[in-house]
Design brief:
Length: 175
């Protein structure tokens, strides 16, 4: 019979699974307490939640949340990063942490929008520009043709203004 504490943990995990845009599972084997504290601090600064979970409770929470895909990426000692906003942010943060600290932390996989991502796909996701960068690029590309059109439409008027100015300058010099 499950204890009330375990039931509460399963409900909390299920809630996190439902609220998150991406769930990234990691193997934290070999990380010391100081490294784990540093990892949590780095992720917390980027609004990413990291939890070490008991697999049996995580599997139950995945069923409770209606996200059986998560069960495919849970095995062994599991730490889970929950990303609630931009889906690329947790992948980037974990990849950056692993690269800069040369950590033994490894990414196992992820669940995003009902799809299971393997380690390679999570690494690819980490290499993509963030949502804000993509929006800025899109707006820049949309603005470029409009700016070109404005320049083309202003060209004849500017040319006429230059010709008239030169003619006026010539008249002033003749007098």
């Amino acid at each position: 019979m499950p204890t009330t504490d375990k039931i509460r943990h399963v409900e909390e995990l299920a809630d996190r699974f439902n609220r998150s845009a991406i769930v990234i599972t990691t193997d934290y084997t070999g990380l010391g307490v100081a490294q784990m504290t540093e990892l949590r601090r780095v992720l917390r600064e980027k609004d990413i939640e990291f939890r070490v979970v008991k697999n049996s409770l995580a599997l139950m929470a995945a069923d409770t949340a209606g996200k059986p895909e998560i069960k495919e990426v849970i095995e062994g000692p599991t730490g889970i990063a929950f990303g609630y906003g931009d889906a690329t942010a947790p992948a980037k943060a974990l990849a950056d942490y692993i690269r800069t600290t040369r950590s033994t932390l490894t990414i196992r996989g992820a669940e995003m929008d009902g799809r299971v991502l393997d380690t390679r796909q999570v690494q690819q996701l980490a290499s993509l520009p963030g949502r804000d960068e993509l929006v800025a690029q899109l707006l820049s590309r949309m603005q470029s043709p409009i700016s070109g059109l404005v320049n083309v439409l202003n060209g004849p008027i500017a040319g006429l203004a230059r010709v008239l100015q030169q003619h006026a300058d010539n008249l002033v010099q003749q007098t």
